[in-house]
Specification:
This protein is of the alpha+beta class. The chain is built from six helices and 15 strands. The longest helix is centred in the C-terminal third of the chain and has 12 residues, at 229-240. The protein is elongated and about 65 Å long. The relative contact order is 0.16. The structure holds uracil (URA). Uracil binds next to helix 5.
Amino acid sequence: METVRLDKFLTQALAITRSQAKELLSKGRVTVDGVVCKKGDTKISPAQNVMANGKSVSAAAEYVYLMLNKPEGIVSASRDPRDQTVVDLVAEDFPRRELFPAGRLDKTSTGFVLITDDGTFAHEILHPKHHVPKTYVVGIDTPLTEEMIHGFESGVTLADGQTMAPASVKALSDDGLLVRVELRQGVYHQIKRMFGVYGAGVNTLHRDGIGGIMLDEKLAPGQWRQLTESEVKTIRSAAQKISL
Ligand code: URA
């Protein structure tokens, strides 16, 4: 019978971070078959009854859904011969799962990447007809203009002739160099290319929301947590609204 480390079992089943699991354990809040257990490396089998804070903890669900705060320099892929990938950052805790990123961020971009092993979910949220909203905080090298705002709203035509779906952009700083962009599309280098049409370069690009769920502020770059069931539902329902 397959066994799993107690700390891993808790992080996966309760959608909590490793440090939160450690805290639960060290405070004596976890029992295994009725006995307090403070050791995260205790191996447990599916037949054992694990309780945390007096409540029974069921084994992890069929699929894994993670929210990662991607640091700069990491590629949005499962494997890469040269670079570290977003899946490399989480894989240690999911040795038997075939994880992949549901959507990409450029190597230089940071922020919210969804990682899962649920192909149907990924297909739903990435399908071009589903228009799941994604929000970004973007540092540009030329102050935001009315022309850009109106252009984004009506649909920017990129240098190669492709016209983008309507998007929104608004200033976050008085100098107009920090802006918030909302897209409902995922074209390669889309934001950089959209600003490029106006001669503006992108210095920093951070995704902070997908399908109405904001990146957890408690996650430092490189950290991740499981999405809660209700967060997965929210993102799924954003994918089901065919809005354009
Ligand atoms: N648009 C870009 O140009 N880069 C990203 O990483 C995401 C959106």
